[in-house]
Amino acid sequence: MRDQIDTDRDLTWLRAATAVAVLSVDPAALGGVWIRARSGPVRDRLVSALRIALPDLRRMPPNIGDDHLFGGVDLSATLSSGCLVRTSGLLGGGPALLLAPMAERMAPGLAARLSQSLDTGAGHALIALDEGADPDERLPASLADRLGIHLDIEGLAQADCAVLEPFSVGKARLRLPDVAIPGTAIPALVTVSSQLGIDSPRAVTFALRAARALAALDGRTVVDEDDLISATELVLAPRATRLPEQETAEETTEDPTPEQREDSPESNETDPHEEIQRLPDELLLEAARAMLPPDLLAKLAAQKAPRNGAAQAGAGAVRKGNRRGRPLPSRPGQLDGQSRIDLVATLRAAAPWQRIRRNLAPDAPQRVLVRAEDLRLRRFEEKSDRLLIFAVDASGSAAFARLAEAKGAVELMLAEAYARRDHVALVAFRGTQADLLLPPTRSLVQTKRRLGALPGGGGTPLASGLRSALELAHQSSGRGMTPTIALLTDGRANIALDGTADRKAATEDASSMARALRAQATPAVVIDMGTRPQPQLRGLADDLAAPYIPLPRADSRRLSAAVGAVLEP
């Protein structure tokens, strides 16, 4: 087994070296490469090889603005010369761009702009460094589809990686236009792409371009079987969304006998450009199968988890303002006493009109003539802190059932909340009322201490617990937080809001509080801590518009996934 692991690591690095060589021959046609790996010496070694292969490689941060990306007005040169002078921007410069670090966290707008640039055939190649820790933290699908080669070198150690030698690509680039593709190569790649569940037609195009580059590197003018297999491993296999079906014995056909081959009228006809005329699709499928991880289906399911970028980054709802946060591109607007002027952007907007305005108003005392339509206002994007409110049932029925296990479940969710740097609060309800045991805090130790000292006994004032959680959520929203409620109860409400022991009134009050939380648009999750699933709690979860999870069937992964899902802003 260890020898197999070492062999897989060697093959991974060999494919990385092949990818560097192919990209150096035809970077614009392949679109670029998506490298998934955490920062470290292995990735640095691969990036160093790419810098040698693509000397004009320029770095681009994932939060780049439009002025630096597309170019804009060179303000100082324009004002000093009196003529409009523009800058080219990164997309107007060298042929290769390095999108780093954390390309998986780029804004959707930037992904759309880069995708459009790759579609227009402007001659750019993009190297995206994806540092996502979880399977669902990935490069935007629209951009990944336009990058020909996908590499995953996560898990490689520095000792597994030999030094990548620089490739001599000058002759290969000259030979590339003369490389021919056999007639059956396209149908074979289309069949393999269909078997792997690849919907995008770009994948087959990229595989053909990679095969031509491999043939040019090897000094040949015709793509052969090895080129198609290597192209399948580089381009098609990483895009697979399902496992290819194994061919049964009944579906296989027997090879013709030597006598049949001699009798065939085509047996003596050979064409050097059709030397893989009868290339079976099974060879390419086997190459793709060897590349697929055994847990492919599990990884694909994790990638489709309903979590967005804000939830991954440990941030709450996105709010736009003009005071603080991450800068956004400025926008035209009018002063209202609160907005702030983006001086540089305003001057850039006014610069192209200076000569015309000076001719219209030659006696104006101002050196730079600015009009109202030139005003640009500053904008910022701020993400609020998230608050996870635990409302825990500590009544006698819950204590008799599974309060200890419920506390363990809360501790699991606490660990996840701490890893996301969320605030947590603890509300416990027992007897006739609910108590706020812990106001919003980031102290994991203090929360666990309060939770461990929580006694059990008394009635179940579920409505009071929901009301306390509602009040705390409302207060935290006023302080700029994004609240989420995790309710752990057995659902046997028997204490009404007025403190009387009335099961029917208690159930109605709990439903009323649940609908109030829903009207406030507070996300929640209901965890049934009873020994058996309770229909009443399913109804309560419907009133809250919240997921319902019975604790006997929930493990740590399900609990964490449920909380992560409702933490979306």
Descriptive notes:
By secondary structure, the protein is of the alpha/beta class. The protein has 4 domains: 1-167, 3-Layer(aba) Sandwich (Rossmann fold), CATH 3.40.50; 168-245 and 276-305, Helicase, Ruva Protein, domain 3 (Orthogonal Bundle), CATH 1.10.8.80; 318-383, no CATH class; 386-566, Rossmann fold, CATH 3.40.50.410. The chain is built from 24 helices and 14 strands. It has a 6-stranded mixed sheet, with helices on both faces. Strand 12 (482-489), helix 22 (503-519) and strand 13 (524-528) form a beta-alpha-beta unit. Helix 19 (403-419) crosses helix 24. The chain is flat. Mean pLDDT is 76; it is low at 1-6, 248-253, 263-279 and 304-316.
Count the beta strands.
Answer: 14
Low-confidence stretches: 1-6, 248-253, 263-279, 304-316
Question: What proportion of the residues form beta strands (DSSP E)?
Answer: 5-15%
Largest sheet: 6 strands, mixed
Q: Which structural class matches the secondary elements?
A: alpha/beta
CATH class of the largest domain: Alpha Beta
CATH topology of the largest domain: Rossmann fold
Strand order of the largest sheet: 11-10-9-12-13-14
Give the full name of the CATH homologous superfamily of the largest domain.
von Willebrand factor, type A domain
Tell me the helix content.
40-55%
Query: Overall 3D geometry?
Result: flat
Report Rg: 31 Å
Mean pLDDT reading: 76
CATH architecture of the largest domain: 3-Layer(aba) Sandwich
Q: Distance between termini?
A: 44 Å
Brief rundown of the structure:
The protein is of the alpha/beta class and 569 residues long.
